[in-house]
Queue: 4 jobs
Job 1
Amino acid sequence: MGIHKQLGVANAINASGTATPLGVSRSSPAVAAAVAAALPEFFVMEELADLASASIAKATGAEAGAVVHCTAAATTIAIAAAMAGTDPARVAALPDTTCLPNQVVLPAGHAVDYGQSNLQAVRLAGAQVVLAGSAERCSPDDLAEALASPDVACLSLVSSRLVQPGEPVDLAEAVRAAHRRGVPAIIDGAAQFPRIGELLATGADAVLISGQKYLGSPTAGLVVGAREFVAAVRAQNSGIGRGMKPTKEAIVGVLAALDEWQAADHDAWIATEAAKVEAFARKASGLPGIEARLWPDPAGLPVTRAVLTVDDPAGLAARLRAGDPPIYVMVRPDSLVLELVSLTDDEVTTILDRLVD
């Protein structure tokens, strides 16, 4: 009997991407085995954290890394690190930022909601958000003006398909602008682990990544970047980071997932996923009432999704969810968007069969 039947819950087909409400992603048998092996054991957690830092550095080319509870937690902890550094008194005082630089500059179009507003994640550290430019455009002058205040603690940027459409912010230039003002720059690239090298190449002090999305670890946030900044992130475990700490099984799962990532043929994975979605779109286009096209990830993630234009997207999505097994997709006003990463061939066939029905 499968775990879903044991628990009496639905075994959903997740075609909506790495979505937290659906458990995000699937871990491999090797990662699951590593997690299971860790659960009955004790660890010196600082030793495990040191090992994780070395493993993250090796896999990404960064100087250091830290594991926290999730990427939302990583945002809050990274902002705390930018304000308090490793000073024990400052770490203990947060979220009281009296006498500390506490402004976080964020391009207005990078204010996103992933189930929680990232503005709230920043404010949880005790910081104030300063939005630069407009949702449509944040020019270098807009950014420079916002960064000019002596109360600025850091610059926060987002690399995601959730960023508002409009003129994109040059991440590398934005990082340079922050460094000219003597403040660190943080990039939230939660779903962008396959692009970690590209994001680190911007010169950002820290890149925040979700372990449980395309890396396939248990729930974990990775803070990847400069050694000094990562040390400040780890120092928050004695402060507000205490409630956002990683578990032993999460760190061990991250280690196993990083090992798999380094051993994998990434070009083959990209080709296989592209072929899967192309075949699906071709078959879906042959169904009455459906027009299908491919949608490459707007942030540059090597993942392509299928967009199905239909007459009643919300109604069709509801019928897909109501079936057995329930099928979850992304819903737009005029279309459905499906991501097929991690789905088996049988699950893809089930989606097509249900669309026929």
Job 2
Amino acid sequence: MDLDWTRLGKALRDARRAAAVSLTQEEMAEEIGVGRSVIQLIEAGNEYKKPTPSIRAYATRVGWAEGSVEAVLAGGEPTFKEIAAPAPETGPPVDAGLPLRIVHELKGKGDLLDTAVIPLGDDASMVVVVKGKPGASLAEIERSLEAWRKAQGQLLEIDYRDEPDPS
């Protein structure tokens, strides 16, 4: 069976660049303890006999579950580890199983200003978390909340039901 190293390299690069991880090649290299050239070789799809410890460390850092490297090499998709977000300073713990991007944002600096659940028809809903910038003044928080109230009103007005094709 042929292993698609180019596909693996692209998938890892895309995961590194995703908002949840958002690292440069240099930062990734430093975090997993290799040189930038190793990251470049992995992302370029350099062929190996089998996945290396560096590839596995890279996959772990971008949140892939065990077995994802092999799945991608074989033409499948990675699966992601369930990651528990840390408890907010003044609230209950956040449940595990959130996407890494959300966990990253919740861990980030800035005050939690509001949350909302927006219905998307009968089949789904959208959860919105609104955070302010770190160290915001009371006036800045008030402006942020006012902007959120306007955006929330617009989101609630959208009809998310399937509409007939106008043609």
Job 3
Amino acid sequence: MNKRLSFTLLFFLTMTNLIQAQEINLKFRADQSFKIVQFTDAHIKANDPASKAAFATMAAVLDLEQPDLVVYTGDIVTGKPVEKGWNLATALCIERDIPFAVVFGNHDDEDGVSRAQLTELITRMPYSLLQPKVDGVNGYGNYVLEIKSAKSDGNAALLYCMDSNAYSTMEGIEGYGWFHIDQVNWYLEQSQIQQQRHGKILPALAFFHIPLPEYRQAYGNEKNPPIGVRFEDECAPEINTGMYAAMLHAGDVMGTFVGHDHVNDYMAYLNGIALTYGRFTGGKTTYGDLPNGARVIVLKEGKRAFSSWIRLGNGDKLLPVEFPADFLSEE
């Protein structure tokens, strides 16, 4: 190894350790906004040229939107070499100094790397906010991110990141996975902790991969019609363990954001919660006819409200929504 290469490697390792040693604080901007970009279903295969479209779109969206946080909502790397795929996907955030969170989809652990191994890999990366497995709770990637106020160190909003699992593990029941009861209880416990700590309910969003069964009901809400497209049936689990009901009971979650169904990108309204799809981010390594892009979400400090839109890689901005105003205008 020559001296220049040795120095470069040492510098990279040193900087990585410094970033990891620093506490990453998410905080509202001075204008009391906080911008999130959601990438979903990139289906990256690092050595497949068809993945270049996903990388190009992610880079373009990050440069256009300059978010405070990126959330990868599953099925991001779905081909070998897995580690290389994740390094390439997250490097887009790391080189721009953008923190990122990860939740897993049903395909992420199908190429010889388990959820446990993926968690270990990603938690070591600079700017990663993915947290280790919670003892006694199913899934990898159940954690809460706190967003600080622009004016103080107090929390002003919450982001729940959760593992919606992969496939049914119950004999006689086919289809996709669901939240286990211990995950529902974990969410309720975390919500209660935050309410007790702050003496009030903080506005929150939730990110996971597989849509809840209530997405089907929400899309059919004629009183508050959805905004966006639905070109395939919602591939929700056949078992409903009550995560949506828990969110209604806790009262903090304003919106849920998923992927999984590549040709759906709608936001629907049900009992005060926005049940939302991200925009398919992948290239031609999987199915999908929609131009690839990302969902953008902008929180507003002190308000149970947010703005959202779809941003394409070519710069186009689609489907702008003000939540909840755009769903309540007809009431």
Job 4
Amino acid sequence: MKIMYDLGDVVMMKKQHPCGTNEWEIIRMGADIKIKCLGCGHIVMLSRRDFEKRFKKMLQKKAD
């Protein structure tokens, strides 16, 4: 099954961030995916493979 996500979507990752939340917003997509923690604003860049391995579920699609 292919995971469908896009720029601006809010996703839940398997492990929570040290600030206590596991909700992240996708802010850049390409070969790497950059996500921003919605709790503290910390930004992390992951390879697409690592992102898909750590992805848990889609929380909110980008508002059009």
